[in-house]
């Protein structure tokens, strides 16, 4: 299912953005930016395969998936597990993304 491409797209974007975070906030080498930029390019390319009917809706749906993946990143990479409010908020976002992507457009 093409909708699953949002997951690797989110992982690529988060990885790319984290490389900048690591460089600036964690004082890592600027060499961290090289794989980060490659990840951001991969993210942009993957998002073009979205099943959404236009770019704006693709980005809106992606936003819901991005939130889930960001919380997973925080938990697994940065050792900060989500609390119950994070999970409730993420569930709302996921429902919203599903509505935007899959609900019929005609009445």
Tell me what you see in this structure.
- With 107 residues, this protein is mainly α.
- It has one domain.
- It contains four helices and no strands.
- The chain has helices at 6-25, 33-47, 55-76, 84-102.
- Helix 1 (6-25) packs antiparallel against helix 2 (33-47) and helix 3 (55-76) packs antiparallel against helix 4.
- It is flat and about 55 Å long.
- The model has no long low-confidence stretch (mean pLDDT 93).
- Keywords: Cell inner membrane, Cell membrane, Membrane, Transmembrane, Transmembrane helix.
- This is UPF0060 membrane protein ZMO1566.
- The chain crosses the membrane at residues 4-24, 29-49, 55-75, 84-104.
> What is the ordering of alpha helices and beta strands?
HHHH
Relative helix content: over 70%
- The dominant shape is flat
Radius of gyration: 15 Å
Protein name: UPF0060 membrane protein ZMO1566
Keywords: Cell inner membrane, Cell membrane, Membrane, Transmembrane, Transmembrane helix
Membrane topology: Multi-pass membrane protein
Family: Belongs to the UPF0060 family.
Can you give keywords for this protein?
single chain, 107 residues, 4 helices, mainly alpha
Task: Describe, in short, the structure shown.
This protein is mostly helical and 107 residues long. It has helices at residues 6-25, 33-47, 55-76, 84-102.
């Amino acid at each position: 299912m093409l909708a699953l491409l949002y997951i690797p797209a989110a992982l690529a974007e988060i990885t790319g953005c984290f490389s900048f975070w690591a460089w600036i906030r964690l004082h890592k080498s600027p060499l961290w930016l090289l794989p980060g930029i490659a990840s951001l390019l991969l993210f942009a390319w993957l998002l073009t395969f979205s099943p959404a009917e236009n770019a704006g809706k693709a980005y809106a749906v992606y936003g819901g998936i991005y939130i889930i993946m960001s919380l997973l990143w925080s938990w697994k990479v940065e050792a900060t597990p989500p609390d119950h409010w994070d999970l409730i908020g993420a569930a709302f976002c996921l429902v919203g993304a599903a509505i935007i992507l899959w609900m019929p457009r005609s009445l």
